[in-house]
Amino acid sequence: IVHWPKKIKAKGEVRPQFHHVIDIAPTVLEAAHLPEPKSVNGTVQKPIEGVSMVYSFDDDKAKGRRTTQYFEMFGNRGLYHDGWTAVTKHRTPWADAPDGPFAKDKWELYDIDNDFSQSDDLAAKNPEKLKELQELFLKEAVKYHVLPLDDRTFERFNPATAGRPDLMGDRTSLTVYEGMTKVELPKDPNYHFLTDMTNQAITWMRSVKGLTPDKPFFIYFAPGATHAPHHVPQEWAYKYKGKFDGGWDKYREETLARQIRLGVVPPGTRLAPKPAAIQDWETLSGEEKRLYARQM
């Protein structure tokens, strides 16, 4: 969601151009008329790989400027290029081991300009296009240091094994600062860091808009209360009690219907095939349903 009422004429519109999260930084820089930093505190910076989205703010028909984007995580791979995507699932995220060797991964092909939900696999009908995108993925993988592919999980999660710095290390607590001022832990027994961080962000935005109402701003808001052990406050969890008791199959259908109704996806969009590793909700035991409904 982009909100800039002083500069963007469009109201409540959806843009069809393909973009990626790495495009946010160059968008902010262009909107703020700031040059890309070449050095920060004496450290030379790599060139920003994103593409600004400013061109699309007032022109929903503008030709998309991000024509290619690779994806890779734990061996799962994909590539977007000029309205097409080629993807392959190498492993289920929560599984202990990959589905098989990289060479036996099954690739799928989708024409997302005409199949937004990626429900019609065209790999068998258009093998030439699939091969083209597979070869392009390898070129992008070389360019952006994706290779060699590494499908280990537990080893990569462990900083000591992976050989990278660890933010926490042996510490059991962190001291948080607002600028140069230490944020003291309140005495309130119901204190939750996410609430505090949210209030701080709101206060900062009000100050910025009060002092410079015409100046665009960017705030990187990354809440930590997303999963164990950083749980949301109990009263938040209670608000969703029973909301997912119908299960993921029903929720998928309800979500798609709502997106069609709101115009997020076009009428006639079909649900993408459910991964084979995810069971039909009705085949689960009562205990499994209670557990998974809570986790949803």
Radius of gyration: 23 Å
- Number of DSSP E strands: 8
| Global outline | globular
- The rounded distance between the terminal residues' Cα atoms is 24 Å
Classification by helices and strands = alpha+beta
**Strand adjacency order, main sheet:** 3-4-5-6
User: Helix and strand succession?
Assistant: HEEEEEEHHHEEHHHH
Major sheet = 4 strands, antiparallel
Q: Roughly what is the average pLDDT, rounded to an integer? A: 88
Proportion of residues in helical segments:
25-40%
DSSP strand content: 5-15%
Output the number of helix runs: 8
- Unreliable stretches: none
SSE layout:
Layout: H1 24-31, E1 39-40, E2 43-44, E3 68-73, E4 76-81, E5 84-88, E6 107-111, H2 127-143, H3 154-157, H4 159-162, E7 177-178, E8 181-182, H5 193-211, H6 234-239, H7 248-262, H8 286-295
Antiparallel strand pairs: 1-2, 3-4, 4-5, 5-6, 7-8
